[in-house]
C-alpha cells in the first residue's frame, strides 16, 4: 500500500477498493481485475486508486489479506467455543464454518480462492498455517490425546497443510466424483488417524 489512510473517508475508500477487487475477481475473473475496472466499480478515478495502491497486485494482496483475516476470525470463533468435542468433531465444525464463509455473499471468497495460486499467496498461507497450528495446539491442550503421541508437531503440520492445500486445489479444480461432504469426511478421518 502506497499511503495509509488516516481519515475515516480515506479508510472507507480503501475498504471500497478492496471490496471492489474481491467482487471483480469473484464475478469477472482475475484478468478483469484491472486498476481501471476496480476504480470504475468503486466510482472513483484511477488517480484516486493510485493514491493508495501502486499497482493491481497490491490490491490483490489486500483482497487476500481480507480473506485471511476473516478465516482467522472463523478459527478464533471456534476456539472461543471449545467444548467437549473430539478432535474429529472440532475439525468438522471448523471446516464447515470455513466453507460457510467461503460460500457467503454468492461465493465471493470461494471464487477468489480459485485464483490463489496466481495471487502470490505464499506469505498468507504461512499466516493461516500458524493460526491453524495454534488452534490445533490449543485444542490439544484442552483435549489431550488418549495415549501418548509420537511426533505430534509433525502430525499436526502434516494435517494442517494437507487440509489447506487440498482445499485450495479442490476449490480451484473440483473433481467431479468428490463432494464437499466427502472431502470434509476425509479430513475428519485424517484427523482421527493422525491426532488421536
Could you explain the architecture of this structure?
With 196 residues, this protein is mostly helical. It folds into two domains: 1-54, Homeodomain-like (Arc Repressor Mutant, subunit A, Orthogonal Bundle); 61-195. The protein is 73% helix and 0% strand. It has eight helices and no strands. The protein is elongated and about 60 Å long. The protein starts with 7 loop residues before the first helix and ends with a helix. The model has no long low-confidence stretch (mean pLDDT 89).
Put the structure in a nutshell.
The chain has helices at 8-28, 35-42, 46-50, 56-80, 87-113, 122-142, 152-172, 180-195. The protein is mainly alpha-helical and 196 residues long.
Write the layout of secondary structure elements.
Layout: H1 8-28, H2 35-42, H3 46-50, H4 56-80, H5 87-113, H6 122-142, H7 152-172, H8 180-195
Helix pairs in contact: 1-2, 1-4, 1-5, 4-5, 4-6, 5-8, 6-7, 7-8
Amino acid at each position: 500500500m502506497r499511503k495509509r489512510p488516516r481519515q475515516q473517508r480515506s479508510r472507507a475508500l480503501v475498504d471500497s477498493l478492496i471490496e471492489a477487487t474481491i467482487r471483480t475477481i469473484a464475478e469477472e475473473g482475475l484478468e478483469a481485475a484491472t486498476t481501471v475496472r476496480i476504480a470504475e466499480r468503486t466510482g472513483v478515478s484511477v488517480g484516486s486508486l493510485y493514491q493508495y495502491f501502486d499497482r493491481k497486485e497490491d490490491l490483490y494482496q489486500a483482497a487476500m489479506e481480507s480473506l485471511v483475516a476473516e478465516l482467522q476470525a472463523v478459527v478464533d470463533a471456534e476456539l472461543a467455543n471449545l467444548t467437549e468435542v473430539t478432535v474429529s468433531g472440532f475439525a468438522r465444525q471448523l471446516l464447515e464454518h470455513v466453507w460457510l464463509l467461503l460460500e457467503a455473499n454468492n461465493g465471493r471468497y470461494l471464487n477468489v480462492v480459485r485464483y490463489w495460486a496466481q495471487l502470490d499467496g505464499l506469505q498468507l498461507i504461512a499466516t493461516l498455517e500458524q493460526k491453524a497450528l495454534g488452534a490445533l495446539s490449543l485444542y490439544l491442550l484442552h483435549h489431550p490425546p488418549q495415549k501418548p503421541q509420537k511426533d505430534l508437531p509433525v502430525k499436526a503440520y502434516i494435517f494442517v497443510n494437507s487440509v489447506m492445500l487440498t482445499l485450495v486445489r479442490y476449490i480451484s479444480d473440483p473433481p467431479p466424483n468428490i463432494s464437499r461432504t466427502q472431502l470434509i469426511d476425509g479430513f475428519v478421518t485424517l484427523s482421527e488417524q493422525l491426532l488421536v
